[in-house]
Specification:
6 helices; binds iron/sulfur cluster; alpha+beta; two-stranded antiparallel sheet; two-stranded antiparallel ribbon
Length: 192
């Protein structure tokens, strides 16, 4: 995939409204550790995550947007730029940010049956001004930079597809036992 003319203006549009941000186990791990939690379950208890219909009709975890005074991600922080324009920052930026947000405007499409793993350019929000800005993103660089996280995500989907009857262990786990998420995934792959 060639370089794409795009630069994020931090307008925050894609972090608000009716967007649905589904997260994988590694995203949950990063989010929970960022908040200093002991167990991923606390993210559901304190209303940061909710289960909702996602891929294949499965109930999967996604970020629960706040509804008042308008709908926005609980990790979004609003601020003003030097010309008093409203900007939106992600408090998880950069290393704790969910992979789907980190990749945007690239969208990853995985088909485990067909063994395909493709990236597409999709505007994160219909009103996104990113295409009109100076600057480029290089999909190949992004893939190299995020190699480890992309591998975690494939392994998450493999576990999900082989445990469709009860995948809850993928979002209900201790955040204290292991300091490296790879160890958690490897343990699941061995034991489940
Ligand atoms: S809508 Fe586009 S420009 Fe605005 S924050 Fe999202 S990616 Fe950036
Ligand atoms: S996690 Fe960050 S980038 Fe993703 S929707 Fe929330 S504020 Fe936006």
């Amino acid at each position: 995939m060639d370089r794409i003319k795009f630069s994020c203006t931090l307008c925050g549009e894609c972090c608000s409204g009716s967007m649905k941000v589904f997260v994988n186990s590694h995203d949950i791990y990063k989010m929970g550790r960022f908040l200093g939690l002991k167990h991923s379950r606390e993210l559901f208890q304190n209303k940061r995550l909710i289960l909702d219909k996602g891929q294949n009709g499965l109930n999967l975890p996604r970020i629960l947007f706040k509804e008042e005074p308008f709908s926005f991600c609980p990790f979004l922080i609003n601020d003003f730029d030097e010309s008093e324009g409203l900007r939106g920052f992600c408090s998880l930026h950069l290393i704790h940010k969910p992979l789907v947000c980190r990749l945007a405007p690239l969208y990853r499409e995985i088909d485990l049956l067909e063994k395909t793993d493709d990236f597409h350019f999709i505007l994160p929000h219909p009103g996104c001004p990113g295409k009109e800005q100076e600057g480029f993103i290089d999909p190949e660089n992004e893939r190299k930079e995020l190699e480890r996280e992309l591998d975690f995500e494939i392994r998450y989907y493999r576990l999900l597809s082989s445990h469709e009857e009860d995948p809850s262990f993928l979002w209900d786990f201790s955040l204290e036992d292991k300091d490296d998420f790879d160890e958690i995934l490897t343990q699941w792959e061995k034991e489940k």
